[in-house]
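User: What would this chain look like folded?
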Amino acid sequence: MSSLPDCSSEEVVSTSLSTTRVDRLLRERIRRNRSHQAFDVYEDPPPEDPVLETVPEPPTQARLVVVANRLPVTCSKDPSGRWQLQTSAGGLVSALRGVSNYVTLWIGWPGIWLKPGRERDELTSLLKAEGFSPVWMDHTLLDLYYNGFCNSVLWQLFHYVPLNIDSWQKMAEHRAMQLQWQAYQVANEKFADVVLSEYQPSDVVWVQDYHLMLLPSLLKQAVGKMKVGFFLHTPFPSSEIYRTLPVREEVLRAVLAADLVGFHTYDYARHFISSCTRILGLEGTPEGVENNGVLTRVGTFPIGIDPERFTRALESGEVQAQTAKLLNRYAGRKIMLGVDRLDMVKGIPQKLLAYEKFLEEHPEWRDKVLLVQIAVPSRTDVPEYQKLRSMVHEIVGRINGQYGTLTYVPIYHLDTSLSFTELCALYAVTDVAMVTSLRDGMNLVRGGWTDGWGWGGRRWRG
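Assistant: Here's the prediction, encoded as structure tokens.
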């Protein structure tokens, strides 16, 4: 998908040379360093999983400390009142699965709020025993930081979603932007305090995503020799879009404090370097960005899936049994599949409307094709996401009412997440995967489906 140009029509002449130079420098950097592995992180050892074989222990090395907004576990109590931990199904957990055996410590918010006291101390002890260090925040701070600046400002900006007039007016009247920015700063400082309390001199600290863009600077100010990497899992917008952020310079300089800044694609890295040169007036190099004589390396490191994990799962008895049931249930019909987080940028309404148009213009396919749409709930307490959920349900109801019969339902819509084995079974029987994100960091559904369908096609379709 094309992005907005990096400069307005008035600036084309004056900036064309710098744009060309940035392109050339980045391409040279990619050619020269294509085989470079940041921080000696080992490649894709599979995590513990019932469908996986035993994996050898990694060799002894410096600790890899991952710092992310959320811990990769869900905390809850069992019927007896004891705390229990369950692996989460979030996108970041899947993205980092390949290096999970080498993460010695994971720092993040535990997903719940507890007052200081015995309960919090008990959960903290349990988390630390499992290699997790929690960052505690109260309700007000969390709402302003996470729902406010992270997702109402940065998330939308990075995905080219402009704020509407009502949103800007509300921000102006209630000083929302200032309060959210202050909360973002305080939250990043809380993360820094926990990192510094756990830090050992040989550690490599890997900061994740837009929630913690101030953290590299805070850590480097405290320990100048700390090895810090930063990876952005979302797109990075063109400089013309990014420059609309009121605190654009503060955020860029904080990220540049890292030793290495990583992106999924060449375009995102190019936009970042372009923003540094145009907004901060810094010099780009074949390796990254120079700031006061210090080089911050910038690179592209696209994530992928672990195909061996899918292969082992697809060969397991549990997945084969579920696959057989699905083939029997949907016998005689072509299956389309959508697996998305319920978010504005995932294009779920657009996907449904396109499917509706297909059924309208090709009546010969009615009763011969169906769409299975998995919409994983996200940010359910945010009004905009509640409206999106209602819109999706309305479209699904209209299509099923228009084209459904007593024996045929055009759309099977589920507001839930699925287990890995359930996803593998769906991938194996699906004929068409519909990935319709308007903008995305790096969507892994297409990789999982391609691997699953390839195996499923050979096994079940002959």
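Residues 176-198 form the longest helix (23 residues). If you want, I can go into more detail on any region.
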